[in-house]
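Question: I have long wanted to understand how a fold can be written as tokens. Here is the record:
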Amino acid sequence: MTKGNDKYSIDSTDYTVGQDNVQKWGFDIHNPVFGICAGLIVAFLIATLVVDPETAKAALDGIKWKIIGSFDWLFIWSGNIFVIFCLALILSPFGRIRLGGKEATADYSFISWLSMLFAAGMGIGLMFWSVAEPVAYFTGWYETPLGVEPNTPEAAKLALGATMFHWGLHPWAIYGVVALSLAFFTYNKGLPLSIRSIFYPLLGDRAWGWPGHIVDILAVLATLFGLATSLGLGAQQAASGIHHVFGIDPGLGLQIVVILAVTMLAVVSVVRGIDGGVKVISNINMLVAFLLLILVAMIGYAISLGSISTTLISYVENIIPLSNPHGRTDEAWFQGWTVFYWAWWISWSPFVGMFIARVSKGRTIREFLTAVLLVPTFVTLIWMSVFGGMAIDQVINKVGELGTKGLTDVPLAMFQMFDVLPFGTLLSVIAVILVLVFFITSSDSGSLVIDSITSGGKIDAPVPQRVFWAVLEGAIAIALLWIGGTEAIEALQAGAISTALPFTVILLLMCVSLIKGMRTERF
């Protein structure tokens, strides 16, 4: 690596040396990564067939909770470091660096760009938790944040602030570190779009050997298992919603139909690519999401207006206490919620970060990080305030099933809230559609990411390879539901979260490597 040079001292067209890419069956296979990942996935599925799902879940849950309990401080402090790191880059001279060089222009409009990164990042999570999470904190369903008394005005305020804490700056900073690192080394240094490229300043040519292989294999497994988990759990939520609205049996048959439909549409999307598929669906996604948000906000406008200011004030007041892992009186809560969330965001960061990098060429680092951190945080603030505030108000006034019985069924919580609102059936139908569309965007963008890693970092790998990964995600989710239902899916989720521990260290090293790389850039 030479200072003052726009490229690293390797030939950007020759990065496949030592990577053994092979063209076969219409695939562009990166042998070590593709082969090992495929083998491990097959081994996992066979083990799931042989081992009782409850036993597998208990074993993997044990590993997950041991990691969370032993390394809670590492997850929390790493999240804080990522936020500070991103904010520092926005304010630093490095913020003037343009991804792709001084003359680079953006490939996508600002609105389409935001729609894609938001839909891939956490769109489906907002549907699943925007009602259930604030209600859980307010009622003490699983303890309360910072040890406040449940079902009190203080608990109501903190429930909104703590929910926002889990979906605000910290997760987007985690995504931002990975996305910026990938985009910088790909577009400014001419390296392949793969996690290993980020570590070239630290590893040199060893990035193309086994150290790089291991990083990419972990990224593929975390992404694939995370997406399969979301498809499985999401299919259950969608089936619950369809049953709630249309009365169709929400059993295994409907769940499999949902996964098949989502997978088929995702295949169509990945075949069409980002411009013709992902971008179009993401734009539709955001239009439907804003329609639902506006309708709910207008129906309960008095509650919504008050909730927004309450959420913002509580978020600002409590961000430091919630970010401190030491001396907590609510250890069970912050390990079960905050540390779990941080581990989940970190395990998803290779997928979301790489997808954001793919669509972000032409943005300055300042523009990139400001948009990635602040715009989704602002949208999430509005969303959580409207839905969470409405749900807590129903609980306080004992309105509807959610208000009288509390949180009894997480996937159904949003639909229960809609039941007592004007146009409740219409809202539920829109919500079911939105859940399904969010799944399509997660599946197709995830397939493109895995496709890139397993082809050695190529941005446009063969179409059959894209289809292969999209189909495999759905097949894994169906197989797990068929074999072990929720137990098998949650076992897979525990396995995906366990990958967050090594990835936390990898992300911290990314920050070091990115600074070393940016110091060689002319701007």
